[in-house]
C-alpha cells in the first residue's frame, strides 16, 4: 500500500511494511509524518481529494481532512461496492463507506463511484479560481474488485469470452472516460495550460480478477515485476520533451519531492526523504537521480522453508521476505509470492484452462537474482552465477533494515464494527483509548520478553522468528 499523497518514506520507515491497514485495526498513517497535501498547503495550495483513502481512520486525526485536504469525498476502507458503497470485513462485519468531509454521505449511494468521483472533480474545478494554486488528488476505486460496471460499458465487450476480463475491460473504459472528462474540465475552466496531469497505477494487476501483467512474472501482492512495476504517464504543456517513453528508475516516494518542487515548495534533510526530485528526468529526459529501490522488507513474513542466515552468507536471513533493486540488478529473498507467468484471460471462463498454460516449478529456494534490464520477465535466475552481486545486495538489505522502525500491525478492535457507528465505517477511538492501547502493547511486550528469558536455549532458538514481538523482530533480523 503506497498512496502517492503520503509516501516520501519507504514502508520500513513508517511501520507499515507488513500489510495493508485493515478496517478494524487501530492503525493509520503515522500522525507525525507530514503528507504531500500538508506540504502543498504550506506552499499556498488549495487541496482536494476524491476517491479511495485506505490509510486508516480509527481516530478522527487520521482522516483526510486532518491530513492536509481541504475537502474529501470518497471511501475510507479499501474495497467497497461501486454502487451501494457497502464493505464487509469478514462475515457479518459490514458497513456503509462513502464520506463527504467527516460525515457519512448516505444520500450519494446508488451512483457508480467512477462517475461520481469524476463529477466531483469537475465540480471542484468549476468552482475554483485558476489564479489560486490547486492540488486535486483523484484516487479511483477502479479497477479494484468487486468487478462492477454500468451495463452500457459491458455491452461493448459482449463478445469477449472471459467474463472477468469482460467486466475488467468495461471498468477500464469507464475510468478512461472519467479521466477524459476531468481533462476537459481542466481546459474549460482555464487550468490546463499550467497543469501537470499524473496518472499512475499503484501495483500490478490481480490476475484472479481480470487483471493481466503478461509477460511479466507474478501478480498483485507479490514482489515479482508483475506485482511491483507500475505503469503511468505524465501529461502537461510544461513538459520540455513530449511524446516519449521513459525507463528511468523511479519509485512512488519520488512523487513527494518532485511535486513539492514543482509547486515552489522546499524539502530538507529534516523531512527524512527516501524519494528524489525526478522532474528533470520526466520533463527533459535526463538521467534519474535514483539508482536503487527498496521494494520492501517484511520481518513478520519470515517462514520461507529454505531460507536461513547461513544461506545469506551470514549477512541476511534469507527466510525474510524482502526485495531490492540496485541498478540493473534485483534481489529477492524469502517467499516473494506466487511467481507464475500468467497469460491474459482471453479464453472462455473454464476453471484452470488458462491458469495451467505455464506453471513455475515448486519453490525450493529463498534467494533470486535477476538482471532486470536484460531480463525484465525474471526468467533467468543468476544467483548461483553471481554470488558477488548477491552478497552486495544482501548487505544493502541489512543496511536498510538497520534503519527500520518496528512494524505496527495491531490486533483488530471489536469497537470498530459499523453497528456501533450507525451502520457506517468511521473513527471509533479517542485519544485516551489510544494511550491505553499503547500502554497495553508495551505491557504485552514486557511480559512476553520476561517469559522468554526463563525458557531453555533450544526453545528460544526454535521460537526466535516465530514468536518474537514485532519490535524485536524489526531490530534483530
Automatic annotation (TrEMBL):
Pfam families: Sulfatase (PF00884). Residues 430-441 have a biased composition (Acidic residues). It comes from the Eukaryota. InterPro entries: Alkaline_phosphatase_core_sf (IPR017850), ARSB (IPR047115), Sulfatase_CS (IPR024607), Sulfatase_N (IPR000917). Residues 416-448 are annotated as: Disordered. Keywords: Calcium, Glycoprotein, Hydrolase, Metal-binding. The keyword RNA-binding does not apply. Its cofactor is Ca(2+). Coiled coil: none annotated. Residues 9-264 form the Sulfatase N-terminal domain. GO terms for molecular function: arylsulfatase activity; metal ion binding. This is Arylsulfatase family member I. It comes from Saimiri boliviensis boliviensis (Bolivian squirrel monkey).
Amino acid at each position: 500500500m503506497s498512496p502517492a499523497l503520503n509516501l516520501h518514506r519507504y514502508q520500513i520507515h513508517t511501520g507499515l511494511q507488513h500489510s495493508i491497514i485493515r478496517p478494524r485495526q487501530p492503525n493509520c498513517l503515522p500522525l507525525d509524518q507530514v503528507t504531500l497535501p500538508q506540504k502543498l498547503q504550506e506552499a499556498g495550495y488549495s487541496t482536494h481529494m476524491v476517491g479511495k483513502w485506505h490509510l486508516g481512520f480509527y481516530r478522527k486525526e487520521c482522516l483526510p481532512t486532518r491530513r492536509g485536504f481541504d475537502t474529501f469525498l470518497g471511501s475510507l476502507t479499501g474495497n467497497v461496492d461501486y454502487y451501494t458503497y457497502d464493505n464487509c470485513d469478514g462475515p457479518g462485519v459490514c458497513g456503509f463507506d462513502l464520506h463527504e468531509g467527516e460525515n457519512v454521505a448516505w444520500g450519494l449511494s446508488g451512483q457508480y463511484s467512477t462517475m461520481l468521483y469524476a463529477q466531483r472533480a469537475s465540480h471542484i474545478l468549476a468552482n475554483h479560481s485558476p489564479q489560486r494554486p490547486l492540488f486535486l488528488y483523484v484516487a479511483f476505486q477502479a479497477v479494484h474488485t468487486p468487478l462492477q460496471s454500468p451495463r452500457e460499458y459491458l455491452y461493448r465487450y459482449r463478445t469477449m469470452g472471459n467474463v472477468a476480463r469482460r467486466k475488467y475491460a468495461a471498468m477500464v473504459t469507464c475510468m478512461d472516460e472519467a479521466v477524459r472528462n476531468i481533462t476537459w474540465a481542466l481546459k474549460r475552466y482555464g487550468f490546463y495550460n499550467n497543469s501537470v496531469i499524473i496518472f499512475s497505477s499503484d501495483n500490478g494487476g490481480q490476475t484472479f480478477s481480470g487483471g493481466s501483467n503478461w509477460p511479466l512474472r507474478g501478480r498483485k501482492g507479490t514482489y515479482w515485476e508483475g506485482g511491483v512495476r507500475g505503469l503511468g504517464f505524465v501529461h502537461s504543456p510544461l513538459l520540455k520533451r513530449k511524446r516519449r517513453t521513459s525507463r528511468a528508475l523511479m519509485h512512488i516516494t519520488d512523487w513527494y519531492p518532485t511535486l513539492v518542487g514543482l509547486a515552489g515548495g522546499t524539502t530538507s534533510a529534516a523531512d527524512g526523504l527516501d524519494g528524489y526530485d525526478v522532474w528533470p528526468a520526466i520533463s527533459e529526459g535526463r538521467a534519474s537521480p535514483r539508482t536503487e529501490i527498496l521494494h520492501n522488507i517484511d520481518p513478520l513474513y519470515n517462514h520461507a522453508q529454505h531460507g536461513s542466515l547461513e544461506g545469506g552468507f551470514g549477512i541476511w536471513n534469507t527466510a525474510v521476505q524482502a526485495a531490492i533493486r540496485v541498478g540493473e540488478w534485483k534481489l529477492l529473498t524469502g517467499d516473494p509470492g506466487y511467481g507464475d507467468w500468467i497469460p491474459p484471460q482471453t479464453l472462455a471462463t473454464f476453471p484452470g484452462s488458462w491458469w495451467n498454460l505455464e506453471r513455475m516449478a515448486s519453490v525450493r529456494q529463498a534467494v533470486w537474482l535477476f538482471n532486470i534490464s536484460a531480463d525484465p520477465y525474471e526468467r533467468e535466475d543468476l544467483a548461483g552465477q553471481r554470488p558477488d552481486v548477491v552478497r552486495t545486495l544482501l548487505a544493502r538489505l541489512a543496511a536498510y533494515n538497520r534503519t527500520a522502525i518496528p512494524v505496527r500491525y495491531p490486533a483488530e478492535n471489536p469497537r470498530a464494527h459499523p453497528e456501533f457507528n450507525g451502520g457506517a465505517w468511521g473513527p471509533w477511538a479517542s485519544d485516551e483509548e489510544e494511550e491505553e492501547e499503547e500502554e497495553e502493547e508495551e505491557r504485552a511486550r514486557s511480559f512476553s520478553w520476561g517469559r522468554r528469558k526463563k525458557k531453555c536455549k533450544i526453545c528460544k532458538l526454535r521460537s526466535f522468528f516465530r514468536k518474537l514481538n514485532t519490535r524485536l523482530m524489526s531490530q534483530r533480523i
